[in-house]
Amino acid sequence: MAETLIWSFLLRFLQSLFSAAPFILAGLIIAGVFRRLMGRDLTVRMFGDNSRRSLVQAWGIGMLLPICSLGVIPVIRELRRTGLKGGTILAFAMSAPLFNPLSVLYGLTLSEPWAIITFAFCSLLVVTGVGFVWDRIFPDSGNTKPPPAEVAFGLKRMLSIAVAAGREAGGVSAIFILIGLIGVAMLGVIIPAGGLQHAMNGDNPFAPLTMSGVAVPVYATPMLAMSQLGMMFQHANSPGAAFVLLVLGAGMNLGLAAWMWRQYGLKKCGVWFALLLAIVLGLAYGVDRPLYPHEIDAADHTHAFDIYCRPFHGVVPNASQVVIEKLKRDIQPYELYASIALGAVVLFGLILNLFDRNCRIEAWLEKQQETAEPSRFDIIVPAPVLGGLFLVGLVFASILGCYAYYPPPGEVLEEMNIAKAEALGAALVGDEVHSKYWIDIYQDWSRKLEVGVYLRDWKLSDYHRIKSRILREQLELLKHEVEHYNEDKEHGDNHAEYEDTAEIRELVSKVNISQVRLKTAFLDER
Predict the structure, then answer these.
(1) Which of 357, 376, 415, 426 has its CA 20 to 30 A from that of 405?
(2) pTM of structure
(3) Domain coordinates of the chain in residue numbers?
(4) Sign of dihedral through CA atoms 398, 400, 401, 407?
(5) pLDDT for 243-252, tens place per residue?
(6) What CA dihedral angle connects 401, 403, 406 and 407, to 10 degrees?
(7) What Å distances lie between residue 295 and 52, 273, 289, 298, CA to CA?
């Protein structure tokens, strides 16, 4: 049993690390840009110069940058050096991981669009409300440090960004990121497999409270949080619990909480969390009934949170091999490449921090050497302008990336045919693991189909939404029926097993028909 728990911890740790790697890389680069290109004065002005509008500006900037609650740690460490108030920094820290262009578009397909818009508005109320009160209680939370000297234009300026990012990747930021990863991995040991399947039902008045108890150690990327919200709405779970998951699950983690404790002390950190929980739970219970999807038949359980529970039931023989196979299957290529790049940056940072503790390389970069006068054809871009262009370009790249992440309908339908063959074939033979894996992919592609159409036509009719919803509901029923089949098979109930097989075949036929109708609707009836 102990060996299984160890492998459960490693699996959840590595799953979170691979999914976080692209966002951590983005956070390291953004921190380097703030430090070396934007500079302290321009960064402070961009965040409202500690004025009344600074909290709203921090929320808006956070909504645009593609980082998660782990990737935001090096950024807020840099903001802390600039002297921004704690309320502004923490407002940015919590808003940045909640939304980005990819996740917002995805979220609009998960339920009625006004539900996601309501969540975004409520997140604004949370970060500005908590930040305003906290700044009033602790007005002297800023801590300005001397800014680094400027680096001359050219390759040195670019290298200085890499050095700043490396220092963070192999330094203090890495410790807090590691704490965050350990927190979510510990949940994979403490919470039994399937332990949260019934806790978030829509008829459970304690669902938002229960979610608040597990959401802080949880780590969720913006896309993962949105997909979990979709599953909650699809199963008619508690919208209040969904809101708590978004704000605390995507917006917080134990590493971020540890950084707050380290920077502001136990008292200030405790006040922040008390205010945060009061406002989040108040809004959660406020939106719970108005946003409840009454048109959907409530399910008695959900698999949305299985990723935060123990991955195995009981003792698993050859757990190491099972973990390796699961990682090979689940890790996306871009996550693997980002993880390799992140490993290189961390190694670079460790070498710098071990062998250059006196920051000699920074001194060399900052040393101003006499150079020949630039020719009239040379264009020297000031560092703040270059930094601003980089940040704006990062936002536009995220928006343009939506078109690659959400392909046109023809390409999506081809991918759906592949997922359908794998999912239905596995379901017919009762392969629960394989069928669940491909059903989730199949459902995900159906949502990407909706977003892809909306991006290109700027509209999506209720007719097309219903066609996609019917397909996903049938796939969800198929997933549950395969579960029942395997449960009856384990208990030796031959009669129930026979009935389950018949039900699986009927659902497979319905899915095939729904796929044909979906294809016709999206290709010929737009």
Answers:
(1) 426
(2) 0.86
(3) 2-367+380-402, 407-524
(4) positive
(5) 888 888 888 8
(6) -130
(7) 42, 35, 13, 9
